[in-house]
Every structure is written in structure tokens, then in C-alpha cells.
Amino acid sequence: MKQHHRTVWLSDIHLGCKDCKADLLLDFLKYNTMDTLYLVGDIVDFWALKRQFMWPESHNRLLHALYQKSLDGTHVVYLPGNHDEIIKPYANMLFGKIEIKKRLVHTTAQGKQLLVLHGDDFDGEVCLGKWQAWLGDKLYDVLLWLNRNLDHYRRMRGFHYWSLAAYIKKRIKKANEAIARYRDATLKEVARNNLDGVVCGHIHHPEIVEQNGLLYCNDGDWIESCSALTENAHGELNLCYWTTMQPKLTVVSMAS
């Protein structure tokens, strides 16, 4: 059975990257409809494509499915990130029926005003330095390699997807400190603009947190978490983890 949402936020899909969970997102789109769909950056990974061109048929089907949503009446807005930054110069233009924006303010059914943007703007306030950033990238590549091989092993034995990378990241102190700095940086921007909260992606860490009266929502990614942020007709926000190819939701809710 399909589930309808007032709004859905998706980010960090990374089409063109070998770790993209395109099949799981296709399954999510099959069972979920929405009035508005925000594509919050890093939808296509041009960095990965430049390193090694890889575009499986499932990535083509996913790109078509996202565009088809706009043809079927969903209001689709694309807010490019850093991995698809070549799209940024086309802000305030239309790609077919898809709007392109750098950032915007979304008003929920409860009247809350949320800043929506990818979040790479705040990298300067989070990074520890060039050497540490380089080392972090290399360690993350190793984590994704382990994640990919474990997922293959589990699928061979009939188990659903589970992210080793996300599990390990949650237990690394430096990673948690960087996430906290990122959250603080985004909420400073919210406060500067007299808004109620923010929806972003970028750091592949889905969560809904209320901090100092402001709402921080990260919709996660489709590399590790396979997560989406959703808003229902009452303006309630949920995190949906679509880690099995089944028509069901696992949600973490934020009380209104």
C-alpha cells in the first residue's frame, strides 16, 4: 500500500557512485507519494564519475523515476550540493518541471519555517585541517569498501541491508564532534535568519534534534543510511529508514 506525504526530503543519493543504493530508493519511490519533493544535493556524484565512470541501469531508472515524479504532479525542487555543484549556476531556472534553487524556506503545515539547503556552505566551520580531512576521506573510503562487501555477504544469505559504516561512525569520538560542530553551524544560520529550523544533508548522518528552541533535521543519505525526511499532513516530521525492499516504514518522529 502506498503512503502519501505532504513533503519528502532526499539527499546524498550519489548517482554514479558504486555505493549508491539505487534499488532501495527506487523501492521507496514506488511505495511513497508526496505533494512536494526536495532533492537536497549530491543527487548525481560528478566527483565519482570523474574518477571512474560508472552508470548502471538502476541509476538510469532512478533518475527517470525522480523526473517522472514531476510529470505526475509532484512539485520537485533540486538544491545542488558540492558533488553536483556544476548545477548551481542554473539556480532559479527550470529543468523541465523541476525547479533548481540554491536554498529556500519551507513552511510546514504547522507554520514552522525551515531553511532548506545541502549544507556544504558550512564546511569551513567543521573541518579539522587539510591533513585530517584527507585522512578522514581515506578512512571513509575504507569504511565504504567494508560496507559494500558486508552488504554483498548479507544479501547472499538473505539478510536485509545494514550499514557497518554508520555503526562505526557513531562510535568514533572525532566524527561525533564534527557532526556536533556542523549542527551548531547550521543552527547559527537559522538564528541569523529568524527561522524555526533547518533541513540539510551533506554529512550522511540522519537525525532530528531540537536545540535551543531550534529544529535541526538531517535527511541522511542513500550510501549508508537509506533515509528520507518526511512531513505528514499535520506538519509532523519523521525520519524514514528504507533498509529493506518492503513497503513499510521505520520512523523516528519529532513531537510537534
TrEMBL record:
<keyword id="KW-0479">Metal-binding</keyword>
<dbReference type="InterPro" id="IPR043461">
    <property type="entry name" value="LpxH-like"/>
</dbReference>
<dbReference type="GO" id="GO:0016020">
    <property type="term" value="C:membrane"/>
</dbReference>
<dbReference type="GO" id="GO:0046872">
    <property type="term" value="F:metal ion binding"/>
</dbReference>
<dbReference type="InterPro" id="IPR004843">
    <property type="entry name" value="Calcineurin-like_PHP"/>
</dbReference>
<dbReference type="Pfam" id="PF00149">
    <property type="entry name" value="Metallophos"/>
</dbReference>
<dbReference type="InterPro" id="IPR029052">
    <property type="entry name" value="Metallo-depent_PP-like"/>
</dbReference>
<dbReference type="GO" id="GO:0008758">
    <property type="term" value="F:UDP-2,3-diacylglucosamine hydrolase activity"/>
</dbReference>
<keyword id="KW-0997">Cell inner membrane</keyword>
<feature type="domain" description="Calcineurin-like phosphoesterase">
    <location>
        <begin position="6"/>
        <end position="206"/>
    </location>
</feature>
<keyword id="KW-0472">Membrane</keyword>
<keyword id="KW-1003">Cell membrane</keyword>
<protein>
    <submittedName>
        <fullName>UDP-2,3-diacylglucosamine diphosphatase</fullName>
    </submittedName>
</protein>
<dbReference type="GO" id="GO:0009245">
    <property type="term" value="P:lipid A biosynthetic process"/>
</dbReference>
<keyword id="KW-0464">Manganese</keyword>
